[in-house]
Amino acid sequence: MDQESPVLDTDTLRQHLMSTLPMQRIKALHAFELEPAAGAAPEHVAATSAAARFAARGIPFYSTRDDSYLAWVDKAVSLWKRVQDTASFTQVATTFSRTGVARHA
Q1: pLDDT tens digit string along 38-67?
Q2: Residue 43 falls within a domain, yes or no?
Q3: What's the number of domains the chain is made of?
Q4: What global pTM score does this model have?
């Protein structure tokens, strides 16, 4: 899970954060620290910034039975979904603006 192969969906992120292997959890959290693409929409920049701040705090004590850890995983997945949703919006908006359709509509 580096820049070449980021976590693609929220289910994969959750699986990695719940993994018994520490490196799986670390690599999943690292995906939050990747910089947004140049020219990204403000919504995407805000989402990635929030995710990076969340990741900067690190991984709490790992226990799949601990309510605090499970709440942390839920928060991570929620932030990741927001990042992914705004990335999708950015790609659609960029494609739309490049086509010139808006100028001709």
Answers
A1: 667 888 888 888 888 888 888 888 898 999
A2: yes
A3: 1
A4: 0.70
Is residue 66 one of the residues assigned to a domain?
Answer: yes
Alpha-carbon separation of residue 57 from 1, 93, 105 (angstroms)? 20, 32, 46
Domain-located, residue 38: yes
Residue 59: what residue type?
I
- The mean pLDDT of the chain is 77
Q: DSSP alpha helices (H): ranges in the chain?
A: 10-17, 22-30, 42-56, 67-99, 101-104
Q: At residue 63, what is the residue type? A: S
- How many of the other CB atoms lie within 10 Å of CB of 27? 17
- Cα 18 from Cα 79, distance rounded (Å): 16
Range of the domain at 52: 10-104
Q: Collapsing DSSP states into helix, strand and coil, what is residue 62?
A: coil
Q: Is residue 5 part of a domain?
A: no
Dist CA 28 CA 90 (whole Å): 22
**Using an 8 Å Cβ cutoff, are 43 and 89 in contact?**
yes
